[in-house]
Structure formats: C-alpha cells, structure tokens
Amino acid sequence: MIGVLLLGGISLLIYSIVRYYQYTARYPKGPWPLLFIGNLLEFDFKAQHNTFNKFGKEQKGIYTLFTPIPYIQITDWKLIKEAFVNKDQRVHRRERRTRVEGL
After folding, report:
1. Which of 69, 75, 67 is nearest to 43 (CA)?
2. Which of 7, 48, 62, 94 gives a 20 to 30 Å CA spacing to 82?
3. How far, in Å, CA of 58 to CA of 49, rounded?
4. Please, which residues bridge with residue 63 across strands?
5. Which residue range forms the structural domain that includes residue 83?
6. pLDDT digits (tens, 9 = 90+) for 4-50
7. CA 6 → CA 10, 11, 52, 65, distances in Å?
8. CB atoms within 10 A of CB 70
9. How many domains does the chain have?
C-alpha cells in the first residue's frame, strides 16, 4: 500500500514538473524558473532596476520573469514599438490581472 502511494506521489510530482516547464516554454526566453517559486531567488528586491537591466542585456531586449505569475518584460525600444504600435490588437486583447491592478 505504501509503495503504491509513493509511486503515485512520485508520478504526480514528475507530471507536475513536466507540465510546468511545458507551460513556461510558451513564453519568451528568460532566466530558468524554479518550480512553484519562479525566478524569485534571482530577483534583487532592493535594487529592482539592476535586476531588470541585467536580464534585459542577457536576453537581448525581451524576457519573461516568473514570480510565480509570468511577466513579460520588454527593454528594447524597437520591440516596444513593434508590440504596442504594429501589433496593438494582440496586446489590447490580453488577459487582465485584477489582483495586480488593485494595488
């Protein structure tokens, strides 16, 4: 009985890990996120601008931070113009984050 529960727990953990990294693969490349906590360990909360600048230089202008909600950061002016001017309808129809907007 314990063996079956242990096997089921390990299988569920492996399934969760595979699904999480399939989910993160849909977003632009960025620092490698950890399961459940995302990139919180790599984030400097006292100097957030330094963290954003470092990731922007490493990832060439666009990257995703998982905190654990995914946030796409665009730091290159050409990519910002393309996203908000040329492809504004895609950005306009994006999902709303009511928890963040209430802050």
Report:
1. 67
2. 48
3. 14
4. 73
5. 2-101
6. 999 999 999 999 889 988 888 888 888 888 877 888 888 888 888 88
7. 6, 8, 41, 33
8. 17
9. 1
Q: pTM for this structure?
A: 0.66
> How many residues are present in the chain?
103
Question: Please, what is the Cα angle at 96 between 72 and 19, to 5 degrees?
Answer: 60
Q: Which two tokens stand for residue 73?
A: 């950061």
Q: What is the per-residue pLDDT for 98? A: 60
Mean pLDDT of the chain: 81
Q: What is the secondary structure of 15-57 as a DSSP string?
A: HHHHHHHHHHTTSPP-SPPBTTTBTGGG--SSSHHHHHHHHHH
